[in-house]
């Protein structure tokens, strides 16, 4: 990894290149995904099966789209007890965290003659997309937990999970066991854009969702972007990213391992170290070079680091915080002496990991907070996937006759200033 002094012109150019990498949707991809979505909208199961047979499972039929209880029973016999133990801990801790996010309905009667409030209700149905275990990927069990658990805690009545099948038309047993553990109501063997389209519009077999969440490749992300508005979505997520702020007390080996934990995701992933110690910068760079050679995905990690990895040496930790707020990273680690005294300086980050023994994977799997986080600088205005994504808030308004008459003149005046005569008349007619 290259080391730059910041601020400097070369460092600023590198930071801009990293910040602007984002998601680049090509016109031909938009046209192709739109065509697939319309095909599923018009032809339902027939289209979903057609694309699944073409790209995933050649022998899949409409009758085998949905995972059966027998398939789940078989899966439970194929996973080991150690996995179940780890799964139970993760589920327990993720549930405990998300329960704190529950909102309650409320009513206020402080103004005489009025009742104002808000009703909080869950959406009726949700879809959770989980990438499949294929093409060198391993089963993303954590995506099952992070998608289904907040939906269930919100009170969603029906949660559908979508995941692409293997060539043999099966679903990875670890995904099935996790889905049953967290209460997914139905699991369907479909992936990519056609899975998102099926959730957005419904088919003969797959129920329509009100909200779609979960990570996926660029085609899944683009499909979610296109159907957004027809259904709710969690976010338009880009490649993974991490920014580590470190001082002289940090462990270079820890820093290197954490940077690589994101670099191995994707050639577009970014890994940034910001430190006020030149010694730490040099030691971390050396540790990255040593550790990357031990990774099974080292080619991906190397490409990521070459294009979107950087080490920035800043004058002090205040400058580090200013830079972090400008970048607004998905994952921000504070490997510094007093992280709790420092967090007040951080305004923009998807999640903050504090201390030498809180690496980013703690949050990915088991700590409790959701790992679906805003990327590409959107932490300036967006938040992690939460229970709130699965609820809707409805305003309540009631006026007594006396209070209505007391405020009527003001309502009429504001309506007439806007030139909306019918609005004004709906008030005036009650005064006659």
TrEMBL record:
<comment type="function">
    <text>Catalyzes the sequential NAD-dependent oxidations of L-histidinol to L-histidinaldehyde and then to L-histidine.</text>
</comment>
<feature type="binding site">
    <location>
        <position position="423"/>
    </location>
    <ligand>
        <name>substrate</name>
    </ligand>
</feature>
<feature type="binding site">
    <location>
        <position position="331"/>
    </location>
    <ligand>
        <name>substrate</name>
    </ligand>
</feature>
<dbReference type="InterPro" id="IPR012131">
    <property type="entry name" value="Hstdl_DH"/>
</dbReference>
<comment type="similarity">
    <text>Belongs to the histidinol dehydrogenase family.</text>
</comment>
<keyword id="KW-0028">Amino-acid biosynthesis</keyword>
<dbReference type="GO" id="GO:0004399">
    <property type="term" value="F:histidinol dehydrogenase activity"/>
</dbReference>
<dbReference type="GO" id="GO:0005829">
    <property type="term" value="C:cytosol"/>
</dbReference>
<feature type="binding site">
    <location>
        <position position="364"/>
    </location>
    <ligand>
        <name>Zn(2+)</name>
    </ligand>
</feature>
<comment type="pathway">
    <text>Amino-acid biosynthesis; L-histidine biosynthesis; L-histidine from 5-phospho-alpha-D-ribose 1-diphosphate: step 9/9.</text>
</comment>
<keyword id="KW-0862">Zinc</keyword>
<feature type="binding site">
    <location>
        <position position="364"/>
    </location>
    <ligand>
        <name>substrate</name>
    </ligand>
</feature>
<feature type="binding site">
    <location>
        <position position="262"/>
    </location>
    <ligand>
        <name>Zn(2+)</name>
    </ligand>
</feature>
<keyword id="KW-0520">NAD</keyword>
<feature type="binding site">
    <location>
        <position position="423"/>
    </location>
    <ligand>
        <name>Zn(2+)</name>
    </ligand>
</feature>
<feature type="binding site">
    <location>
        <position position="240"/>
    </location>
    <ligand>
        <name>substrate</name>
    </ligand>
</feature>
<feature type="binding site">
    <location>
        <position position="265"/>
    </location>
    <ligand>
        <name>Zn(2+)</name>
    </ligand>
</feature>
<dbReference type="GO" id="GO:0008270">
    <property type="term" value="F:zinc ion binding"/>
</dbReference>
<feature type="active site" description="Proton acceptor">
    <location>
        <position position="330"/>
    </location>
</feature>
<feature type="binding site">
    <location>
        <position position="265"/>
    </location>
    <ligand>
        <name>substrate</name>
    </ligand>
</feature>
<dbReference type="InterPro" id="IPR001692">
    <property type="entry name" value="Histidinol_DH_CS"/>
</dbReference>
<keyword id="KW-0479">Metal-binding</keyword>
<feature type="active site" description="Proton acceptor">
    <location>
        <position position="331"/>
    </location>
</feature>
<dbReference type="InterPro" id="IPR016161">
    <property type="entry name" value="Ald_DH/histidinol_DH"/>
</dbReference>
<feature type="binding site">
    <location>
        <position position="418"/>
    </location>
    <ligand>
        <name>substrate</name>
    </ligand>
</feature>
<keyword id="KW-0368">Histidine biosynthesis</keyword>
<dbReference type="InterPro" id="IPR022695">
    <property type="entry name" value="Histidinol_DH_monofunct"/>
</dbReference>
<feature type="binding site">
    <location>
        <position position="262"/>
    </location>
    <ligand>
        <name>substrate</name>
    </ligand>
</feature>
<dbReference type="GO" id="GO:0051287">
    <property type="term" value="F:NAD binding"/>
</dbReference>
<dbReference type="Pfam" id="PF00815">
    <property type="entry name" value="Histidinol_dh"/>
</dbReference>
<protein>
    <recommendedName>
        <fullName>Histidinol dehydrogenase</fullName>
        <ecNumber>1.1.1.23</ecNumber>
    </recommendedName>
</protein>
<keyword id="KW-0560">Oxidoreductase</keyword>
<dbReference type="GO" id="GO:0000105">
    <property type="term" value="P:L-histidine biosynthetic process"/>
</dbReference>
């Amino acid at each position: 990894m290259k080391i730059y002094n910041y601020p400097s012109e070369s460092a600023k150019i590198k930071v801009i290149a990293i910040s602007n990498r984002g998601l680049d949707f090509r016109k031909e991809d938009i046209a192709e995904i739109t065509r697939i979505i319309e095909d599923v909208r018009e032809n339902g199961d027939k289209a979903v099966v057609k694309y699944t047979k073409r790209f995933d499972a050649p022998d899949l039929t409409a009758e085998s789209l949905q995972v059966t209880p027998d398939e789940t029973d078989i899966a439970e016999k194929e996973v080991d007890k150690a996995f179940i133990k780890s799964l139970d801990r993760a589920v327990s801790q993720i549930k405990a965290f998300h329960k704190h996010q529950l909102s309650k309905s409320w009513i206020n009667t402080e103004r005489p003659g009025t009742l104002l409030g808000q009703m909080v209700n869950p959406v009726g149905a949700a879809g959770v997309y989980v990438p499949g275990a294929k093409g060198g990927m391993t089963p993303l069990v954590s995506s099952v937990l992070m998608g289904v658990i907040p939906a269930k805690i919100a009170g969603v009545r029906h949660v559908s999970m979508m995941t692409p099948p293997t060539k043999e038309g099966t679903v990875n047993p670890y995904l099935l066991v996790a889905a049953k553990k967290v209460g997914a109501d139905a699991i369907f063997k479909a992936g990519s854009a056609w899975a998102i389209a099926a959730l957005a519009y419904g088919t003969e077999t797959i129920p329509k969702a009100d909200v779609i969440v979960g990570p996926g490749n660029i085609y899944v992300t683009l499909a979610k972007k296109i159907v957004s508005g027809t259904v709710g979505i969690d976010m338009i997520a880009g490649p993974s990213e991490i920014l580590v702020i470190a001082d002289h007390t940090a462990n270079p080996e820890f820093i290197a391992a954490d940077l690589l934990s994101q670099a191995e995701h994707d050639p577009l992933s970014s890994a940034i170290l910001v430190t006020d110690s030149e010694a730490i910068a040099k030691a971390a760079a050396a540790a990255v070079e040593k550790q990357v050679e031990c990774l099974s995905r080292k080619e991906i990690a190397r490409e990521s680091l070459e294009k979107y990895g950087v080490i920035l040496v800043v004058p002090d930790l205040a400058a580090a915080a200013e830079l972090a707020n400008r970048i607004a990273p998905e994952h921000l680690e504070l490997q510094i002496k007093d992280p709790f005294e420092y967090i007040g300086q951080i305004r923009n980050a998807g999640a903050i990991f504090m201390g030498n023994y809180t690496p980013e994977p703690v949050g990915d799997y088991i700590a409790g907070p959701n790992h679906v986080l805003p990327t590409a600088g959107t932490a300036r205005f967006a938040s992690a996937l939460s229970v709130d994504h699965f609820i809707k808030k409805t305003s309540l308004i009631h006026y007594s006759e006396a209070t209505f008459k007391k405020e009527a003149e003001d309502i009429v005046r504001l309506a007439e200033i806007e030139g909306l005569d019918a609005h004004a008349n709906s008030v005036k007619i009650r005064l006659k």
